[in-house]
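Researcher: Here's my situation. A collaborator sent me these components and asked whether they could plausibly form a single complex. I don't have experimental data yet, so a predicted model of the whole assembly would be a useful starting point for our discussion.
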Amino acid sequence: MTSEADAIQKEPSMLVQKAMIAEHYEKLAHAKELGKKVVYTFVPGNLTELMNAFDVLPVYPEINALSSAMRQKAGRYIAEAERLGHSEDVCTYVKCDIGMKRQGNVGPTGQPLPPPDLLLLSYTGCFTFMKWFELLREEYGCPVVMLHTPYQGDGEITDNMRRYVVEQLEREVIPAFERLTGTRYDEDRLKAAMAKSAQAEDDMVAVLESAKHRPSPIDAYFGGVYYIGPMFTAFRGTAGAAEYYAQLRREVGGRVASGEGPITPEGPMGEQRYRLVVEGPPNWTNFRELWRMFHEEGAVVVASSYTKVGGFYDQGFRHDASRPLESLADYCMGCYTNRSLPQRLDLLERYVRDYEADGLLINSVKSCNSFSAGQLLLLREIEKRTGRPAGFIETDLVDRRYFSAANVKNRIESYLQMIGEKRRSRGARGARGEEVRP
Amino acid sequence: MKVYVGIDLGSTTTKAVMIDEGEQVLGRGITNSRSNYELAAAIARDEARVSARFTLLERELGEAPELARFRTRLAKAFRKQQSLTQLAAFRDLALEEAGADRVAAIRAPLTAAVRRVLDGMKERVEKPSLLEGGAPAKTSDFFRDRAAADYAKLAEQIQDRTVRFDDLMGIFDKAILRVENTELDLSFAGNVGAAIEEATRGLDPSVGERGRGAVLRVAEIPLDVGCVIGTGYGRQTLPFPREDIRSEILCHGLGAHHQFPLTRTVLDIGGQDTKAIQVDGDGVVTSFQMNDRCAAGCGRYLGYIADEMSLGVHELGPIALESTRTVKINSTCTVFAGAELRDHLSNGQRREDILAGLHRAIILRAMALLARSGGVEEELTFTGGVANNPAAVEALRALVRENYGERTLNISPGSIYTGALGAALFGRRGLEARELAA
């Protein structure tokens, strides 16, 4: 999550985050000298507290891929992977990651990344994750430990499901870490980290929910990806993350008090004419350009599903030091992509209502079936349930070839103008004394 | 009188519509879009202005048959004057190109040959029509197309061993581009004088006098433009304030509603995109879907097919209607269009059967978008340039019946102007709202 150019305006907490990230990559670059073991793992359902309890350094391939895209390096990496035989239809995160590895495995800060000593595969609703680490296992010749997370097909987490995950942690994952590091599992360390996680999680939820204010002091999609950064990656459960979220909360609280909107790369946000809920991951190759399209139209995102991919905190979940492994199990099973379509639907409906949004905008991503399957159904159903219009754009995660600026801009403008016309038309009907749906 | 103008800057053509205070269409203009969007907009707007004068003249002259005859003659003579103005400009530029250094080796014979072609073209324009008042021959609205047809035919006759056909067409290509980027006086005031003289020749003097008087009165009516609204793909390039630019999706919705008030679903197939739009009882868009960055199966695709078959794009539909056995076409990819076409031809398929298949394939793609947007509600209005194609209309009618049952299918003769009409309506209503607010 690095910047694109120096001219970009930043919130002060972003600079704190940047320093945290730089420090982490610095450690990674010197992992061998430091005698640290390196574990590659995925963002959804990540076991960061457990990894920290064993003093291993995590690497998140999706984060590397999106960082590469933001630095405009993804195209080269994807081409490399395609030369190796990966087809155009393969998830572009995977291709970007493999291409990056083949071209020297240089991370977002320009320093080389160490190879993994272990691949920790937390499977949370994304089948591609399994294939991805199968490929990395061949690339690096290192072992994989898998945590199989049952899908919430029936819309709930049962005791059996929880026990199944906890048993895997006890019998597979923790022993693998013990073998890797030569140290014994220390539950007190894990508990201490989880207590810190919960504290930061409280602050993060307060930040996300600040978008209920008018004007919203944050953008919960474009800005949101920065706010979730430390929580979803290597820092959850650390003192640094707790401090970062405390500062972020103060900063956002200040904007609420002064009635200010978010700071976007183009400067402070002006009048907020449209409040949107966004479903789907962002496009990373044209991240700033896409944000600008929203900014120019006065559209602010008040809630998004993407900021829940690495954990669901605003619906009540907290890492719980009193039942550490059960809590980790609940966390893994609660990630957005591990939830059923009806659950996602209920959630989006709640967001549209609770955040008083004008509608739902879906960014359907070419690469990601975990997200995209069923999105049109979500769109229709949200329209039906809330009476508010939904819009649909199509891009990709990290492959520029799937981003047509003219097409996306046309759809966004049309969607927002449609909201505007509906408002005007409702106003006119109201003035004529006709019944108006909320 | 107060008028409102909508300009639709499409990828292929630029349209302008002028309406009056009562939302009646006064005039329409169309030109091919070129690299200079501003000029294309100006040309279409000026043409709409001229066409508005003729509408006003129609209102002024009333129903009497002898006056109607005068009006038809005047319109024809006026178009001839415009053609002569265009041709004169083309002549100057073509002769200049024939004298260029690039063709120095054959300068003298080339200039002589070009001169003969140009003389022939002028003769064709000046030649009085054999059938006065009969149905007008089906010719293109664009000077470029008419000039190209005449020029090519004459060049074929005039070419010899020194000045080849390609040399002559090279001059045409250069000169036509330049003439298209020159602003010519094609205005009512500038051309109507000569047209009156020709139109009244041989007419009963009293009819002539009444006609002349009406023309003078109409020419005096001020057309005070209250608002110009831009829409279409090129809308961002128009030098208009932000609030005067509307998405073509909303414009097509409102325009279709104005043409057919019972419209609930709109299908617009333009040059490079296809849009499926749902509107409410006021013509306000409630939902829409459009093709992604790939423009397969849009109007431009038909353009390529026409080029491949050495046909005019307007000839495709009628030929396809002669089909007795539709060929199944899978891909509507414009890039592969030529290869697929030759493949079927070499397999012995008949031209009309292949074309019928191509039209069906285009509409099948549109059907997917219609389904995504919420289906086909009663009534369906088909807009955009492709709505002028009878084979596309037939394919749509059949597929709608197959998938949704009987639906009323509306197609306005001015379907290509629907977006510009919607823009003009937004202009009038927006201005009214602004004035009310003030």
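Model: Some features of this prediction you could bring to your collaborator: The longest strand of chain A covers residues 359-365. Residues 26-190 of chain A form a domain with the Rossmann fold fold (CATH 3.40.50.11890).
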